[in-house]
Design a protein that fits this description.
The complex is a heterodimer of chains A (201) and B (222).
Chain A: E1 2-12, E2 15-26, E3 30-34, H1 41-48, E4 56-62, E5 74-77, H2 89-99, H3 108-113, H4 129-142, E6 147-151, H5 159-174, E7 178-182, E8 193-196
Parallel strand pairs in A: 3-7, 3-8, 5-6, 6-7
Antiparallel strand pairs in A: 1-2, 1-4
Helix pairs in contact in A: 2-4
Chain B: H1 3-16, H2 24-40, H3 44-65, H4 69-76, H5 79-84, H6 90-117, H7 124-154, H8 162-166, H9 171-185, H10 192-219
Classes of the chains: A alpha/beta (201), B mainly alpha (222).
Chain lengths: 201, 222
């Protein structure tokens, strides 16, 4: 499986965010998108996720499911955690697992993977920012999809949780998945390639 | 569990939880209908004659009440992004949300309507007919409102526009709903034709509403 972008352009609110961006990520590879604030890191991820219209260029996926769009084979973890405060941790995750088409109803392993198993019955309103982020990452484990689009995934995470996330990402890459992550600093993947957006400064 | 039922059950559960607003519509309906006799005065014959129209107007306004939350909540917390990335066509996701919305806000209106008939001196048999027209017509209000809710999300903070967009489109539902109720109660026109048209409006909006709402949401992509 390979995700190819050629000469991609993005325009939001009448302003050109970036143009002429090209990259290619294959199974087992990670791409870290870097750049200053406003360079279009988040826009690029949302564009791949089908949430922002492509203003120019091409984006295609080789070797994926032919009948599914790229968005339908991708997980997107954005700045918002897509959690409902009145539902419990377990209910939130169980809903997303079912909606995203997970085969199994069992969400225990996914909660274990992010260290939230003990809080399954707690309403999500009481979670800290880091715990919310971890619950949103648990979604990626509960409903496997080959492409992970992570927007600053390590923000709000403490050191042990960051290490756990790196483990999850390594496991995903080893299983033939691919990752596109936007980040300011290193995200802990040594073999990741870097794509720099926008001019320096 | 399929994605459709998962979304339907989640939305029902959300609106039954604290702050979900499931009963707000029914309470608002109660208040509007209670205020009418105070405004109109204790003329029992007049109240009985315009009772069905008041109930219909109350139901129309009450069903608008929670409508702007339908997509705005999901947009605020990022859920809408993930709903658009689902394998289920967006039209079906929108349909599931609208059905959940009708079950938690439209259906309670239908259920409390017979009780409110007492306030308006509408006799019991007539109340049965009015309730039947509300049962057939409130889905149309929800599914027409669905399009407005999607448009207001696409416009970012367009919630205040919602009633202005939606109310003109609900005029046919109001006309045929009240016409069917009056036909059943006082005649002389038959009940069948306006009631059938009311059902047709509901069925047509059930199909067209989700398609238009999904198109509005997609158009809202930047």
């Amino acid at each position: 499986m390979q995700l190819n972008a050629d000469n991609l352009a993005c325009s939001r609110g009448g302003r050109d965010v970036f143009a002429g961006v090209g990259f290619s990520v294959a199974s087992g590879e990670a791409l870290v998108v870097a750049g200053r604030n406003g360079a279009g890191k988040s826009s690029l991820l949302r564009l791949i996720a089908g949430l922002v219209r492509i203003a120019g260029g091409t984006l295609d996926l080789q070797g994926g499911e032919p009948e599914a769009s790229i968005a339908e084979q991708a997980h997107y973890v954005g700045h918002q955690d897509a959690l409902k405060p009145t539902l419990s941790v377990g209910e939130n995750l169980r809903f997303w697992a079912a909606f995203l088409g997970a085969a199994a109803d069992d969400i225990e392993p996914a909660l274990e993977a992010v260290g939230l198993a003990a809080l399954a019955d707690l309403p999500a309103a009481y979670l800290s920012a880091g715990q919310r982020r971890r619950l949103s990452i648990a979604r990626l484990v509960a409903a496997p999809r080959p492409i992970w689009l992570l927007d600053e995934p390590t923000s709000a995470l403490d050191t042990p949780s960051q290490a756990r996330l790196v483990e999850l990402m390594r496991g995903h890459l080893a299983g033939g998945g691919l990752i596109v992550a936007a980040a300011h600093g290193p995200i802990g993947l040594t073999q990741a390639r870097e794509l720099r957006l926008g001019a320096e400064g | 569990m399929t994605a459709f039922t998962a979304l339907l059950l989640r939305d029902i559960r959300l609106s039954l939880r604290i702050g979900g607003g499931a009963l707000m519509g029914a309470l608002f309906f109660l208040i509007v209908v209670t205020l009418m006799p105070f405004a109109i005065g204790p003329d029992l014959n007049l109240l009985a004659r315009i009772g069905p129209a008041i109930l219909w107007l109350g139901a129309l306004l009450a069903s608008l009440l929670a409508l702007d939350r339908l997509f705005a909540m999901d947009q605020d917390d990022g859920s809408l992004d993930l709903l658009m990335m689902g394998r289920m066509p967006l039209e079906l996701a929108v349909l599931a949300k609208a059905l959940a919305h009708w079950i938690t806000t439209g259906l309670p209106l239908v259920i409390v309507a017979p009780v409110l008939g007492l306030m308006l001196n509408v006799e019991l048999r007539a109340m049965g007919w009015v309730t039947l027209t509300l049962l057939a017509g409130t889905p149309a209000l929800t599914f027409i409102g669905l399009v407005g809710a999607a448009l207001s999300v696409a416009l970012r903070r367009g919630g205040l526009l919602l009633p202005v967009l939606i109310l003109p489109l609900t005029v046919p539902v109001l006309i045929f709903g009240v016409a069917a109720a009056n036909a059943a109660i006082v005649g002389p026109a038959p009940f069948g034709p306006p009631f059938t048209i009311l059902c047709a409006l509901s069925l047509a909006s059930l199909v067209l509403g989700p398609i238009a709402a999904a198109a509005a949401l997609r158009h809202g992509l930047e």
